[in-house]
Specification:
The chain is α/β, with parallel strands linked by helices. Helix content is 54%, strand content 19%. The protein contains seven helices and eleven strands. The strands form two sheets. Strands 1, 2, 3, 4, 7, 8, 9, 10 and 11 form a nine-stranded mixed sheet that branches. Strands 5-6 form a two-stranded antiparallel sheet. It starts with a strand and ends with a helix. The mean pLDDT is 85.
Length: 327
């Protein structure tokens, strides 16, 4: 079986929210509603163990859709932008590149070789700008040499590296403000919590399906046994509660019933508040109609009184003219 030579690659990639926002903005400006992909440069720090992806910038990139081997990347633009960012923050160095994927392509190894001009071991981060599954929208890779058992020459391939989303305090505040702006005020806090829990359960179901598929392939001999993965799965199973113990089962039942009671009381309170607002609205509308009717009646009475006064004045004038004529 071929082996991978990757002794010097970091073990974890930390991607900041600013990078995700920049990639999505780049895609929306350049390739939205098209099959094109966008490419950019990643800036940050690489200490050998962890790669901190703190910033990024877009790069002019074109490729032939029919022939993936034909592509163009403006490396002069990359060098100019690199020098400008270096003047702003010398700690942020070129550490790799990104594209919107959502999967690797045949030309990625060639592009990766180009980025070795700026960093000896560039990291490739594939950012899925339109994720269809719950989970992190990022996948990170390092180029490694694949050694074959048959003695043929080693070939280049990509090795996957775990990623996570990390943010500094200032970035967390900015993300909170963005989430506050796009928050749906028509839904209550309870509905939001239930929606988040539903999304979490759906993501957990997908992960369990992946674990089941992996174990099935190992059992059928399609994949080799990885002791590290098996150990991690065993640790997960050890953390699961033992529901055969009556005390644990009773505790879970009580907690579940308490949560259901809270949901029921919250729904009742929300319904009562909505009914109270409806009644108040009807009372206000009825009062407004009564006031409008009173004003209309007052206007009619005033006009009738004016007509009566005018008629009385006219009658008095005629009477006076009659008296004058009789004399």
């Amino acid at each position: 079986m071929p082996g991978l030579e990757s002794t010097s690659n970091p073990s974890k990639i930390v991607v900041h929210p600013l990078v995700l926002l920049s990639v999505v903005d780049h895609y929306n400006r350049v390739a939205e509603l098209t099959k094109k992909r966008v490419v950019g440069v990643l800036l940050g720090q690489n200490d050998g163990e962890v790669v901190n992806v703190a910033n990024s910038f877009a790069v002019p990139f074109e490729e032939d859709e029919k022939n993936p081997a034909v592509w163009f990347l403006d490396h002069n633009y990359v060098e100019t932008m690199r020098d400008m960012f270096k003047k702003i923050n010398a700690k942020e160095k070129v550490i790799g590149w990104y594209h919107n994927g959502p999967k690797l392509r045949s030309s990625d190894l060639q592009i990766n070789e180009l980025f070795k001009r700026y960093t000896p071991n560039p990291v490739l981060v594939v950012v899925d700008v339109q994720p269809k599954e719950i989970g992190l929208p990022t996948d990170a890779y390092f180029a490694v040499e694949e050694i074959h058992d048959d003695g043929t020459a080693a070939t280049k391939t990509f090795e996957h590296v775990p990623t996570e989303i990390g943010a500094e305090e200032a970035e967390e505040i900015g993300v909170e403000h963005l989430l506050r702006d796009i928050k749906d005020n028509s839904t209550g806090t309870l509905a939001t919590r239930i929606s988040h829990q539903f999304s979490s359960l759906r993501g957990l179901s997908e992960r369990l399906a992946d674990i089941r598929a992996y174990l099935q392939k190992v059992l059928e001999g399609g994949l080799p046994v990885n002791s590290e993965i098996i150990q991690n799965l065993q640790d997960i199973f050890n953390l699961l509660p033992n529901l055969t113990i009556p005390e644990d089962a009773a505790a879970f039942t009580v907690q579940t019933n308490d949560q259901y009671a809270l949901i029921y009381v919250s729904a009742m309170a929300r319904s009562i508040i909505a009914l109270h607002d409806l009644i108040n609205n009807k009372i206000e509308n009825r009062e407004a109609e009564r006031m409008a009717d009173e004003k209309e009646n007052e206007a009619k009475n005033a006009s009738a009184a004016a007509v009566t006064d005018a008629a009385a004045g006219q009658t008095k004038a005629q009477t006076e003219e009659t008296d004058m004529a009789s004399k």
